[in-house]
Amino acid sequence: MLDLIITNIGTLATPEGKGPKRGIEQGDVRTIPNAAVGIRDGIISYVGPMSDAPAARETLDAGGRLVTPGLVDSHTHLVFGGWRHHELDMKLKGVSYLDILKGGGGILSSVRSTRSASAEELTERAIGFTKEQLALGVTTSEAKSGYGLTSEDELKQLRVVRAVDAMQPVDLVPTFLGAHALPQTYKENRGEFIRIVCEEMLPAVAEEGLAEFCDIFCETGVFTPEETRTVLSAAKAQGFKLKAHTDEIDCLGGAQVAAELGAVSAEHLITSDAAAIAAMAEANVIGVLLPATSFYLDKPYAPARAMLDAGMALAVASDFNPGSSPSLNLQLAMTLACLKYRLTPEETLTAATLNAAAAIDRADVAGSVEVGKKADLVIWETDALSYLFYRFGSNLVHRVVKNGVVV
Ligand code: NIG
Ligand code: FE
Fold first, then answer.
1. Measured CA distances, 106 to 84, 109, 320, 364, 367 (Å)
2. pLDDT tens, position by position, 144-201
3. Rounded to an integer, what distance in angstroms lies between the CA atom of residue 355 and that of residue 339?
4. Of the candidates 387, 319, 308, which has an alpha carbon nearest to the alpha carbon of residue 341?
5. What pLDDT digit, counting tens, does each position of 321-370 carry?
6. Nearest-angstrom CA–CA distance, 149 and 151
7. Element at 242 (helix H, strand E)
8. Which atom, in ligand 1's list, is nearest to the CA of 80?
9. Nearest Cα residue to 170 out of 267, 265, 73, 79
10. Ligand 1 close to Cβ of residue 294 (< 6 A)
11. Using alpha carbons only, how large is the chain's radius of gyration in Å?
12. Ligand 1 within 6 A of CB of 246
């Protein structure tokens, strides 16, 4: 006997599979009208017509609503101290994101706030963020470090990610981002900071098993493609899977380095040119696009259609962080993806579920409503997929089911 059956689902909409959907296939979403989903031990054990649904101890009537997989936020900076609303005034006066950073603000301001916060304070705060995520339909999320920039402070952040993962329902996937900005003390000695990342931070993170992925910010005035190659090669040799923040403001060749080293994903990609796109497509690098960051930094939107045409798989994520995207609302990012990248509702759904799960190596257990996957689902306050991208600004979640439990 099943634990729970969700019946009277007006439309079940889900991508299918255990890997990312590339190119033209990104829009392949299965829809089942009048569906039911059965759950046992937190795992999906029936997906199909309501009429054939097996018996269960409990029933949840979806009232004819739309059901999709739980959303997956594949790029967040979930653990940090302080905010950066004081930078708004500078922003409005036209000071650029990179100039704020150059002046010791931006990421470096969040580094100061994060270093001075205790692990307990950071934990409490991040738990609050996961509560907000869950209410918005996010059931799995990546979480990066990168506001410590010393071994001790990076480890503190990653230990917080581990603690928060254990303390609440949203599954967190940890990424080490020690090369997020160059501390000002290393301005004249960049090589030494890179050495510390490769030879001290990465081994310490690996030793405690605190991160699955290693990421780096490859950008003008931050880290070069050559430094990106050095850090990601060291990470790969130490068993980390790879990601790279690249082509956010300038297209420097970081995407090609990510491709060359077999990175799982490359992120931002606002300014990616044809060569960058070709390299990522060829190496099956998933493009994690962050449209809320384009919105908040008032930058162009990534060339998503060209990427799909080249055969890439795309994910869409919030990039939640205190500087360039202070919003946890993945629904808003999905609306922007649909309107600004001109992704179809089906392509956008795949971008925030199955492809997002693939970008954090969870496509075997999450990202679709299929037998054998985690019972992570959203019941939406609508019966139509297109409505999710249309009624922007409100939280359209009716109920979230996480590991088979209505939360
Ligand atoms: O993905 N671009 C680099 N890192 C973050 C922003 C971090 C911050 O501004 O605090 C991003 O946009
Ligand atoms: Fe980011």
1. 8, 5, 14, 36, 33
2. 999 999 999 999 999 999 999 999 999 999 999 999 999 999 999 999 999 999 999 9
3. 19
4. 308
5. 999 999 999 999 999 999 999 999 999 999 999 999 999 999 999 999 99
6. 7
7. strand 241-246
8. 10
9. 73
10. no
11. 21
12. no
pTM over 0.85: yes
Count of C-beta atoms within a 10 Å radius of residue 388: 26
Q: Which ligand number lies closest to the CA of residue 74?
A: 2
- For atom 8 of ligand 1, which residue has the closest CA? 323
Residue 88 phi/psi, 5-degree rounding, is -60, -40
Query: Which runs of consecutive H residues, i.e. helices, occur in 341-396?
Result: 345-351, 354-359
User: Is the distance from the beta carbon of residue 318 to the nearest atom of ligand 1 less than 6 Å?
Assistant: no
Is the separation of the CB atoms in 139 and 352 below 8 Å?
no
Instruction: Find the 367 Cα to ligand 1 centroid distance in Å.
Output: 25
Q: How far is the CA of 369 from the centre of ligand 2 (A)?
A: 28
What is the DSSP track for 65-130? Answer: -EEEEPEEE--B----SS--GGGHHHHHTT--HHHHHHTT-THHHHHHHHHHS-HHHHHHHHHHHH
| Contact indicator for 38, 377 with CB cutoff of 8 Å | no
Would you state the structure tokens that stand for residue 400, as one six-digit string?
Answer: 């979230």
Residue 219: left if φ>0, alpha if ψ -120 to 50, beta else—which one? beta
As a whole-number percent, the residues of the chain with pLDDT over 70 amount to: 100
Burial class from Cβ neighbours inside 10 Å (0-12, 13-18, 19+) for residue 354 reads buried
Judged by DSSP in three states, 355 sits in helix
